[in-house]
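Collaborator request, handled under Task 6.
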Amino acid sequence: MNSRATTVALTLLPAVVASLGYYMLLGHRRDYIGHFAAGYGGTLALIAIALAAVPPVRHPKLAGWVVVPCTLLAIAAGTVTEATIFNIAKFDEVDYCNQNLGAVLAGLVAVHLVRPAKPPDADFRWALLNGVTFVLIGGYFALT
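Structure tokens returned to the collaborator:
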């Protein structure tokens, strides 16, 4: 399997399987799926952008140091948005937990993009596209 197909599969399938699990077990709470998908997508997009910005000659040394800080930054951003923008009635711990589960899964998936040689730019674009798609899916489920 080529690099792009592997990247598409690895950045898409885990989140789809987890989202289907949410839907099958907790379909009556669509916001759970939405927060999970948004946390996954936002984190994956952030990591893809950050890794794409690392110069190829520095990628072997720096790429491994990008994933965890980006994941933590995305969790922090989710904390702020859950406590401010999405705090309509109260801070929802379950929504916050679902966002963080999505963010951690994205961090685990993004380890695939950390290799001795920098992956092609198309891999980062696909990861970014999948991330943005999951943010949109998350928004749909969280708001409907």
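The cover message to the collaborator said: "The chain is about 75% helix and 0% strand. Residues 3-26 form the longest helix (24 residues). Please let us know whether this matches your experimental observations."
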